[in-house]
Design goal:
The protein is α+β, with helices and mostly antiparallel strands and 124 residues long. The chain is built from 3 helices and 5 strands; from the N terminus they run αββββαβα. β3 and β4 (77-82) form a beta hairpin.
Amino acid sequence: MTRRFPRTETLIPDDLRAALIANGRASEEQEDFDPRPVVKLFTPDGSATWLITEAYEEPDGQLRMFGLCDLGLGSPELGYAMLSEIEEVRGGLGLPVERDCYFMSQYRLSHYTRMARHAGRIVT
């Protein structure tokens, strides 16, 4: 059985959470909204990666996020994921999902999506 390591820090700090929610509001108001990803999440001991552009607070307080999702199966896709579900994911060694603190988005989400579909995985 793989050991499950606990999370030691907040996955999405308040400043990034606010930026994601602001993008969520902008997405609802602008038809062709194509933001740059705000957050890159990944499994350090696996192949899952998420490039998150926006978020929405649900009535129950949970955070529903939108972005490019790659579970490491060769078919990255745009979609929604609940922060609470991502926080529960563990890689092969039991390590929790981490935020790439050094990620600086160079492109808009549509560009990352095209590159990922061509490569079969998220390329940053």
